[in-house]
Amino acid sequence: MLKLAVQKSGRLHEDSMRLLKECGIGISNGANKLKTEAGNFPLQVFFLRDDDIPQYVEDAVADIGIVGENVVYEKNKSVDVVEKLGFGKCRLSFAVARGEEYSNIQSLEGKRIATSYPYLTGQFLSKNKVKADIHEISGSVEIAPGIGLADAICDLVSSGSTLLTNGLKEVETILQSEAILIRNRQLNKAQQQLLDKLLFRVHAVKKAKNNKYILLNAPNDKLNEIIGLLPGMKSPTVLPLADKGWSSVHSVLSEDEFWDKIEQLKDAGAQGILVVPIEKMVM
Ligand code: ATP
Ligand code: ZN
């Protein structure tokens, strides 16, 4: 049995549960439950506050956990980072009042800085040889400058709208963060095998998200050129169409080259291009 810690409620909860579901792991998410067991995978899920997850994983109360990098690096516990998960993206940044002058990190010398991330903030400041006064507060950091509690803040930002509504401007980013899978450093062989099995599924899900299945019709005299544009997993599938002189070509395209390739395929004479999402991809 593998024990996984996820956030009980909040920004990471739903995406964490969705990932398990996409991995084919059925969890009955009973409201207000502290823990639950998967029906079809030897996995126990603990629902916890995100801040507590690194500690629980270090102590082997949970074997693995899903939590933001920001929390993992702030808590600085002895755990291994296994995998980036692609959701919960944000950054940890300094912000000051919009009217405040800021040229570089030295501008924070001698200032009062409010943050929920005293460790990462302190580390960044001392690396840059800046001495400032760090005030640790646990929530609503963004209101600190407005009420005269601090001159600057160091807080999580995603769209920046919270900063904007509080009259602040983002001036320096110290960490890019997303949800990651962490693990206890002393997993036994059986636990590691279960983790590998889970990771195999996570990779298939991630891979599928980054790729699209593409179907198109190609005139036979342009077939070679069109096939040359397609990577495919091995090579594209080519099927004759009822209409003589035409073939149907199936392949897989990655998200980042997608639009460029579509243009090139059209220019090369491809028609009736269909693009469909892939659910799982196993290489
Ligand atoms: P908990 O009750 O579990 O302690 P919390 O209030 O500390 O919850 P949330 O606000 O739910 O935490 O955020 C959880 C994580 O989501 C953050 O640690 C961060 O990794 C990620 N996240 C993504 N975007 C943002 C954002 N704009 N603001 C804050 N966190 C974000
Ligand atoms: Zn928290």
Protein architecture, described:
- The protein is built from 8 helices and 15 strands.
- It starts with a strand and ends in a 6-residue tail after the last strand.
- 27% of the residues lie in helices and 32% in strands.
- The strands form 3 sheets. Strands 2-3-1-4-11-5 form a 6-stranded mixed sheet.
- The protein folds into 3 domains: 2-88 and 178-207, Periplasmic binding protein-like II (D-Maltodextrin-Binding Protein, domain 2), CATH 3.40.190.10; 90-176, Periplasmic binding protein-like II (D-Maltodextrin-Binding Protein, domain 2, 3-Layer(aba) Sandwich); 211-277, Alpha-Beta Plaits, CATH 3.30.70.120.
- It is α/β, with parallel strands linked by helices.
- The mean pLDDT is 95.
- It has helices at 13-22, 53-58, 69-75, 118-127, 161-165, 189-209, 223-229, 258-267, and strands at residues 2-7, 35-37, 43-48, 64-68, 80-84, 90-97, 112-115, 133-136, 152-157, 168-177, 179-183, 211-219, 237-240, 246-254, 271-277.
- The protein binds adenosine-5'-triphosphate (ATP) and zinc ion.
- The site of adenosine-5'-triphosphate (ATP) has 15 residues, from α3.
